[in-house]
Amino acid sequence: ETGVTQTPRHLVMGMTNKKSLKCEQHLGHNAMYWYKQSAKKPLELMFVYSLEERVENNSVPSRFSPECPNSSHLFLHLHTLQPEDSALYLCASSQEGGLAGGPLLDNEQFFGPGTRLTVL
Amino acid sequence: QKEVEQNSGPLSVPEGAIASLNCTYSDRGSQSFFWYRQYSGKSPELIMSIYSNGDKEDGRFTAQLNKASQYVSLLIRDSQPSDSATYLCAARNAGKSTFGDGTTLTVKP
After folding, report:
1. What backbone torsions phi and psi does residue B83 show, to the nearest 5 degrees?
2. Is residue B61 helix, strand or coil?
3. Chain A residues touching residue B46 (CB < 8 angstroms)
4. Rounded to an integer, what distance in angstroms lies between the CA atom of residue B88 and that of residue A117?
């Protein structure tokens, strides 16, 4: 496997179900992200993990729960979702950290193929 | 005002022409800028990154950055039908990424 992988690729769930999305990066990166992409809307950053610590939580409802057990794996646990949560969920990774003595730069992010989620 | 604003599409150009995509951003603290290409039903694919003022060329793609004007652009020379996609502009600051809505480009044979 290369790059960033996500499973499952498609998921249909009822509002009372509990499911988890999995992301794995094979790039040796130290930061991972969850994004939501809904139709006709820009990419929305949900969570950021840097060195396995959560550093960003953009007011995401508690029915979405992230988990980062190590720098290569990221999960998004889902429970009691709403139909409006139907979207493409994208995982990304990047290598963060600036040049010694220089400014910290935000590096490029590499995206996985996404999980297309439908909530009935 | 949106944090990252892209020129509204869709944009249509004939094959072989130059496609010009524009983006402005509001966060002056942004240091890194990226252009992604997203085909329908697929995830974003990085095509260019730019960190310093000026031009950066990679094959048929040229990114331009003007931090004073808070403006980023992407030029695609010799456009091909395979370039038809939605192009996303992104600005990053201290780990946070903000994406524009995207501009849909169609290259007609």
Report:
1. -80, -10
2. strand
3. 108-110
4. 22
For A56, which of B31, B45, B95 is closest by C-beta distance? B95
Lowest-confidence pick of B33-37, B40-44, B80-84, B95-99: B95-99
Cβ of B99 within 8 Å of Cβ of A43? The answer is yes
Both structure tokens of B83: 């370039």
Span B41-60, pLDDT tens digits: 899 999 999 999 999 999 99
Mean of the per-residue pLDDT values for chain B?
Answer: 93
Give tens-digit pLDDT for B13-38. Answer: 999 999 999 999 999 999 899 999 99
The DSSP call for residue A86 is -
Question: Residue A106 and residue B93: Cβ atoms within 8 Å?
Answer: yes
| Gap between the Cα atoms of A53 and A68, Å rounded | 8
Nearest chain A residue to B37, by CA: A111
Q: Cβ A109–B34 below 8 Å, yes or no? A: yes
How far is the alpha carbon of A35 from chain B, nearest alpha carbon, in Å? 10
Q: For chain A, which ranges sit under pLDDT 50?
A: 99-103
**Which helix or strand (DSSP H or E) is residue A46 part of?**
strand A44-50
